[in-house]
Amino acid sequence: MLVEKYTGRTLGITSTRMLVEAGVAEGSGQAVGLVPHRLVQEGEIQVTPIRERRKYSGQASMAYDIGKNLWVVSSGAGTDTLQDAGAYRDQWSGVQRLPRFRAVTTQPIRTSMLVPLLYANQRVFGVAWFETVERLDITGRARRELAHLALALSIANRLYRDTESRGKRTATGLSALDETLSRPLIKLTKPSIFVASSERGEADVVSAMRAVIKERSSATGSGRSTGRT
What we know:
The protein has helices at about 1-10, 35-40, 60-65, 140-180, 205-220, and strands at about 15-25, 30-35, 50, 50, 55, 70-75, 90, 110-120, 125-130, 195, 225. It folds into 2 domains: about 1-165, GAF domain (Beta-Lactamase, 2-Layer Sandwich); about 195-225. The protein has a 7-stranded antiparallel beta sheet with strand order 3-2-1-9-8-6-7, with helices on both faces. Strands 4-5 form a two-stranded antiparallel ribbon. The chain has a two-stranded parallel sheet with strand order 10-11. With about 230 residues, it is α+β, with helices and mostly antiparallel strands. A hairpin with a 5-residue loop joins strand 8 and strand 9. It has 5 helices and 11 strands. The N and C termini lie far apart (about 80 Å). Helices cover about 35% and strands about 20% of the residues.
């Protein structure tokens, strides 16, 4: 992923993830949860619910639910890892009572940065999650850089979804066309019928046939009959 390479080489970010909303299995009592975008692309579903037992399942879930940027470090003055920290401090939005940090890597993380991802209508659909092994204090430049990265991820996701949607519509259209072509097509020309009988044919029989054909043609709005006696 280009963003991962950029954040790793240029910004010194240890881990970069993009979490997007997805449906949660029945019985959990929740409508949505978060799943890594990579797993969505690979067709896998491993959804983390937003809440577990009425509490946020993690700091990413909280950022998604409240729609606020978080810059999380240990509340202590030392270099405690977030895995071992007893309490946390949010340097970006000042959010209090942060839920427990849930490690998804074996590396000692000391700074966790979470930025909600927004659709064009400003609805949150996921979270950009950046982590470092160093304890970093927030700066104005860091805020702007991460906000720009989150915007780029939002745009990339929208383009991905649009491309996927167009592909599905194209496949559906081709399937419908194939089904249509597999059936006999209705002729666009008006139907005609030729009735033959001997010169000694009963006039009332021929007249009756013509009357029926005329009636049927009028009912369908099309049709042409010819007859010979």
